[in-house]
Request: fold
Amino acid sequence: MKPPVPQEYDQWLEQLQTVDFVLTELQLYLDTHPSDPQALQQFRAWTERRRLIAGQFEAQFGPLEATGGARSLHHWDWVESPWPWQV
Amino acid sequence: MWIYQKKLQYPVRVSQCNPRLAKYLIEQYGGADGELAAALRYLNQRYTIPDRIIGLLTDIGTEEFGHLEMIATMVYKLTKDATLEQLRDAGLGEHAADHGPALFYHNAAGVPFTATYIQAKGDPITDLYEDIAAEEKARATYQWLIDMSDDPDLNDALRFLREREVIHSQRFREAVEILKQEQQQKHFF
Ligand SMILES: [Fe+2]
Reply:
């Protein structure tokens, strides 16, 4: 049996989805406005925020990408953490 | 290439098991103006669009795959606890006879996905107008689905997807203006 998903999972996930949403919006905007210095600055700041939140998320709930699956040398975490449609 | 991230773009919640709603939602999975058609349309047009627009087609096409995963999650959550009898009563009997509980790329009426849903003309402005129209059609479909749905949790995610179509349409309109400006500049030389 899989361990139940911890209660804080939803909150952390929504934080991550929020920063990623800002980044997606900025990314599409920059695709058609590639020389907007304000948007570039925002993108940089939110990328840093994303790095911190994603790091904390992964430390608690497992890797977001398969490249982060070998943090433990005993077990491949990638196959364990819940898949998006299961939570 | 693409790298998978183990999360949805936006939370998908459903209030209760509702296979009837799932039957309607599958329109945006394997239908003419659905997310699969959108992703395939934009990513295929990249090879012949002017360089200045390739980034936009790549990023919107990629986001559409994230939307496809959200629709699949909706269908999965609305049907996972349904019995075969409930699927049948919801009009999914024909689907279940072929696919059981599995998802499949067809529209709400059961017509399988076909490449004829998408276009590629190799004429940049023509292709971008096609893309703007596709986004507006997807937005209209989401509106019909929201109007037919009585699930407030599901509607939250459907509204998110509807708004994304508005943004995509807007960005494609900007791309048309960029190409028009580029063409005008060429005439001066
Ligand atoms: Fe779209």
Summary: Residues B 38, 64, 135, 138, 164-165, 168 surround fe (ii) ion (CB under 6 Å). Residues 7-58 of chain A form one domain.
